[in-house]
Write a structure and sequence with these properties.
- The protein contains three helices and 31 strands.
- The relative contact order is 0.14.
- The longest helix has 17 residues, at 45-61.
- The strands form eight sheets. A five-stranded antiparallel sheet has the order 2-1-31-30-29, with no helix packed on it. Strands 3-4-5-6 form a four-stranded antiparallel sheet, with no helix packed on it.
- Residues 1-109 have low confidence and may be disordered.
- The protein is mostly beta strands.
Length: 438
C-alpha cells in the first residue's frame, strides 16, 4: 500500500493537506455490537419533495407514463474538526490575489468545509463534484477548485464522454445545458412545454408542463442523443430534440396492467442501448416487479439481467455518474444485517456477477470503479452504549477478493470515485476529502 493524502475538515474554512503513512491504513477490527443504523444519502430534502410532486403530476398528465424517480434522502449536519493552523493576513491576502487572477479558489480555503455529495472524473486531471450549493470542478492533483457553477433550482447532472450535462427539471424552465470538461457551456436546449389546464393551474405553482419528463431524460454518452418518456411514449431523439423516434408508443402504457417491460429509471445510454431500472407487471401477484435491464433502441428488444430484491437499487446516488459498470446495493438495510453480497454488471456481459464482502453490512454503502476492477465499501459500528464508532472503509480487488487498503473515518462515506488507470481512490467522509493510492 502507498501513501494516502487527506484534506482534513476544519470549521474556519482553512484546511491542511496531511500525508497519512501506510501503517495508518489499518484493518477494521470487529466491534462488540452491530446494531441499528440508518443509511445516510447526501441528497437534499427539498429536491426529493419536488421530485415527488412533479413526478406525481407526470403520472396524471402524460398518457399514463408513470415515473418512479423518487429517492430516499436525509439532510445531515456534519460537525467539522477544529484546526489551529490559521494563515497570516499576508498569506491570506496573497492567496486571494492569486485566486482572483487565475479564477482559481484554493482548496485550503474552500474544499475543506464543503459537503461533497457525489463526484466523478471528467478527465485525468479534473474532478466534477456536486456540493450543497455549487457544482465544482476540482484539480485532482492540487485539490484546488478550478471553477464553481451555481446550483440554482433543481437539476440533474449526467456525465458524458467530453464533459457533462445539467438538466433543469423545473416545469416552467425545463431545459438542459451541455458543458465541456473545463465547465464551459457548449449547448442549451429548451424542452417543449404545454400550458396546464385551467383547473390544474390553480393548484400548481407552475403554469406549464414539459411534453418530455425531464426527471427521466438521459443523454447518450457521446452527447449526440437523448432518450425519455414523453407525450408520444418512450422515445429517442437528437440532442437538439428535432428528430424523435418512438420506441414504445404512449398507448402501450395503459395504467400498468399489462405484461410489458418499461424503463422507469434510465441510468446509461450507450451505443444505442439504454440501461436502467425496468418494471414488469406480474399479473398473478398483481404487482409491479423491478429489474435491472436494458433495451436496444434499434430493435426494441429488452434484456433483463437481474430481479431487484426488496430495498435494492442501482446505486449511483441521487445524481448520475454511471460508466461501464453498475452496482446494486441493499439501500434499505437500516437495522438488518445483510449477507454482504454485491451484485454488479459490466457492459458487454450477458449476466450479472456477484462480489461478497468480508462483512455483511458492507453491502449497504459501496461504490464500484468504471470497469468493475475495484469496489470500495463502508462498515458502520456502534459500541454497547449505542454510540457510533469510526466507520471502516475498505477497497477490494474484485478479481482476487484482496483488500487493498482499509482506513477508519469519524464520519460516513458520502461518495467515492476509483480511478483504475492511476490506482487512486478519491473518498469523501463527512467533509474530509481524501486521496489514496493503492
Amino acid at each position: 500500500m502507498k501513501e494516502a493524502e487527506c484534506l482534513s475538515t476544519v470549521q474556519n474554512g482553512t484546511g491542511r493537506v496531511i500525508s497519512v503513512d501506510a501503517d495508518e491504513l489499518i484493518e477494521a477490527k470487529p466491534r462488540t455490537k452491530k446494531s441499528d443504523f440508518v443509511m445516510k444519502f447526501a441528497t437534499i430534502a427539498a429536491a426529493v419533495a419536488f421530485v415527488a410532486v412533479v413526478s406525481g403530476f407526470f403520472i396524471m398528465n402524460n398518457n399514463g407514463v408513470q415515473t418512479l424517480a423518487s429517492q430516499e434522502g436525509t439532510n445531515e449536519t456534519l460537525q467539522s474538526e477544529v484546526s489551529s493552523d490559521e494563515p497570516s493576513d499576508a498569506t491570506e491576502s496573497s492567496q486571494q490575489e492569486e485566486n482572483t487572477e487565475n479564477n482559481t479558489v484554493n482548496a485550503d480555503n474552500i474544499l475543506s468545509s464543503v459537503l461533497i455529495q457525489d463526484m466523478t472524473m471528467l478527465d485525468e486531471n479534473t474532478i466534477l463534484a456536486i456540493a450543497e450549493n455549487n457544482y465544482l470542478l476540482i484539480d485532482s492533483n492540487s485539490h484546488k477548485i478550478i471553477k464553481e457553477i451555481s446550483r440554482d433550482g433543481v437539476k440533474h447532472v449526467q456525465k458524458i464522454d467530453n464533459g457533462f450535462v445539467m438538466i433543469d427539471v423545473n416545469p416552467d424552465t425545463a431545459s438542459y445545458d451541455v458543458y465541456d470538461v473545463k465547465g464551459n457551456p457548449t449547448k442549451h436546449v429548451d424542452i417543449p412545454k404545454k400550458p396546464l389546464e385551467a383547473e390544474k393551474a390553480e393548484l400548481a405553482s407552475y403554469k406549464s408542463i414539459p411534453v418530455i419528463d425531464p426527471f427521466l431524460l438521459c443523454v447518450s454518452t457521446d452527447g449526440e442523443k437523448v432518450v425519455y418518456h414523453g407525450d408520444n411514449g418512450f422515445c429517442t431523439n437528437s440532442i437538439d430534440l428535432d428528430n424523435e423516434t418512438v420506441i414504445q408508443p404512449a398507448e402501450d402504457f395503459n395504467g400498468g396492467y399489462e405484461e410489458f417491460y418499461k424503463m422507469t429509471r434510465p441510468v446509461l445510454y450507450k451505443d444505442d442501448v439504454v440501461y436502467g431500472s425496468v418494471v414488469k407487471y406480474n399479473r398473478e401477484q398483481e404487482k409491479h416487479e423491478i429489474y435491472y435491464g436494458s433495451i436496444d433502441l434499434k430493435t426494441g428488444k429488452w434484456t433483463v439481467y437481474y430481479k431487484m430484491q426488496d430495498k435494492e437499487q442501482i446505486f449511483s446516488g441521487w445524481y448520475l455518474f454511471a460508466e461501464n459498470s453498475f452496482l446494486i446495493v441493499d439501500a434499505g438495510a437500516d437495522s438488518r444485517y445483510t449477507d454482504g453480497k454485491l451484485p454488479y454488471y459490466v457492459i458487454g456481459d450477458t449476466e450479472m456477477k456477484e462480489f461478497v464482502c468480508e462483512e455483511g453490512r458492507e453491502s449497504v454503502r459501496a461504490f464500484i470503479s468504471g470497469n468493475a476492477k475495484y469496489i470500495v465499501t463502508q462498515s458502520e459500528y456502534w459500541n454497547e452504549a449505542g454510540e457510533p464508532l469510526p466507520s471502516a472503509l475498505k477497497l477490494y480487488d474484485i478479481e482476487t477478493g484482496e483488500i487493498l487498503l482499509t482506513k477508519e473515518y469519524a464520519h460516513d462515506l458520502q461518495t467515492a470515485y476509483i480511478d483504475e488507470a492511476t490506482r487512486t481512490l478519491y473518498a469523501v467522509c463527512g467533509t474530509q476529502f481524501s486521496t489514496m493510492n493503492f
